[in-house]
Amino acid sequence: MIGCHLGRLVQVSVAGGSYQDGLTAVLQGVPPGMLLTEQEIYGDLLLRKPGADELSSPRKEPDLPVIYTGLNAADTIEGAGNRNHTNGTPLTILIPNLDRHFIHIKQYQDTNRTPRPGHASYASFMKYGPDDDAVGAGIFSGRYTSTIVAAGYVAKRVLKACGIEVFSYIKEMAGVRADVTDYAAAFRQTESYKRMRHDTDPFYQEVYVKGRVTPEMRFLEKMAAFAQIENEIDAIREKAPPISPADVRAKYGVHSVVNCPDLKAAQAMLEAVNRVTATGDSTGGVVEVVALGVPVGLGEPVFDKLDAELGRMLGIGAVKGVEVGAGFAVKDMTGIQSNDAMRASGGKVNFLTNNAGGITGGLATGQPIVVRLAVKPTPTIDKPQQTIDKYTLENKPLAAITRRDPTIAGRIWPVAENYTALVLLDNLMAHYGYQAMREKVAENLGTLP
């Protein structure tokens, strides 16, 4: 299988499946010298994992990561203090599947002859044959996006050190659209939402805050701890602290379920999704990603334009459209309406609008980069559908019985955020290299023979 690899100077390869032993992200190009822990990676994974709230699948995967390679196992010399620092070698992150019981496997076995409309199950069967990893949809399952989140978190750490912040939120869901224009305030809001999720996630508290898994443990010791945790998933979930939506809003200033800076819209989104879910159907939405602090000129021309690279987020399952800035709305604009006028003040260039989404000619303009993803409704629904028997080609009815998400938009925003970070870091590496060479040539041009 090809197609599971992304990047040039910063590369990530992913593997695994929904009901295999787990999933893996191998990240190359991570600079050495960065202290990295599994707790902080899990802090982003818990934003995407299933079973966290009423908008996600009831599957109870903890999504606990294990850093397998890429960190120093001990101080390189006595007292160096660089244990668990990145060392420049490929960073491997494992995410074991802990909630894969036979009752769920049997549900897939009972329905795998009849592909679910909207899923890849028919096309993948035709491509890979009877041995296609059809239990849980394999690598076509949304579970594979956990690898993007894990790798992308590391990229975000590097970008932050370079003054770049990447964040995301739900812009629209079930037809309810949020009004978000102040990106600095939206960034603070999403950071507060993440703190709330960390404080209220029982696995974050039980596994990491209480020290059941620590950076000092060897791999086999962590696996022994995971074997125990696998048998305690329900018990740990019951330890989630009771906290009301009103308490969440008072303490954190965010919605308790929906990551949207527009709190009024967030509540309306939740209510709209629940109304549709009650009928057995599902809903879609729009996720918006914003990057602040991106240097002018980041990106490459022609085939590797920065917006083209971000457009590769169509590779995220359930994403059916990607737009930058005004996006498809430019078709209804005139040139004077679409163009982002500039003026200089205090030695800096300011733009009066940002219809370009921070990118022109494939290069960053220095404005906030704004990208939106259109997310389709969850294909697995509790309604009768028409399908076929993929072995006999007989026409068949289908009623879903597997675990499902009422909407996928509620879990895709951290995937989009971290995918964007991977693209930006890959381009930043090239940008720094190009600028350094340009300056070196300029300094020494007069000394060349």
Question: Can you offer a commentary on this structure?
Answer:
- The protein is an alpha+beta fold.
- The protein has one domain: 4-Layer Sandwich (Chorismate synthase, AroC fold), CATH 3.60.150.
- The strands form 5 sheets. The protein has a 5-stranded antiparallel beta sheet with strand order 1-2-3-5-4, with helices on one face. A 5-stranded antiparallel beta sheet has the order 7-6-8-14-9. It has a two-stranded antiparallel ribbon with strand order 10-11.
- Strand 2 and strand 3 form a beta hairpin.
- The model has no long low-confidence stretch (mean pLDDT 91).
The biggest sheet amounts to:
5 strands, antiparallel
Beta fraction: 15-25%
Would you tell me the overall average pLDDT?
Answer: 91
Structural class designation: alpha+beta
Order of helices and strands: EEEHEEHHHEEHHHHHHEHEHEEEEEEEH
Classify the fold: give the CATH topology: Chorismate synthase, AroC fold
Using the alpha-carbon principal axes, give the shape: globular
The CATH class, by name, is Alpha Beta
Give, in spatial order, the strands making up the sheet with the most strands. 1-2-3-5-4
In CATH terms, the superfamily is Chorismate synthase AroC
Helix content: 25-40%
Give the oligomeric state: single chain
Number of helices: 13
Number of domains: 1
Q: List how many beta strands DSSP finds.
A: 16
